[in-house]
């Protein structure tokens, strides 16, 4: 029995009556995030989440069609605050800070291992693949794109630049090193990505 499972047995019984859906989901996200970031996806099951969260398996299956989709939702909420995109008015500094936060999360915390597991499982789990695109990847792209659009409106980026291509150039390079680890993801690597983007690679 893990510490989380023991803690669940020690919790007092929940009060009777139907709880608000947002409260129920919050309990599920908390439990799933804790299991993923301490043990990984292999030990995550609907039965275990139901026991630890006090939410019935019927409810879990109604909201999440597969274990992968449940894991992805819990993962997204576990890392959402860490990966929030700041807007200090300096797009270069904000990009560098956000990419470094992302790289740190992926390489120095269990979240990186969990994300690569989710990406791998999404190749054979259609529900997870759909959830990954709609919840995680599109959400991350949207936040970065919105920040870059504001920078373009402020004259920090040329009007003719496709901001979604910039997102692919920056975050795509980090994902490449995470999934094909021939080279490490370091602060110097992140700084070089941003420098190459803003300063260019041709001689002045």
Automatic annotation (TrEMBL):
Entry-linked InterPro entries: Homeodomain-like_sf, HTH-type_TetR-like_transc_reg, HTH_TetR, Tet_transcr_reg_TetR-rel_C_sf, TetR_C
Source taxon at top rank: Bacteria
Keyword Disulfide bond on entry: no
Start-end of DNA-binding region: 45-64
Keyword terms of this UniProt record: DNA-binding, Transcription, Transcription regulation
HTH tetR-type domain span: 22-82
Protein known as: TetR/AcrR family transcriptional regulator C-terminal ligand-binding domain-containing protein
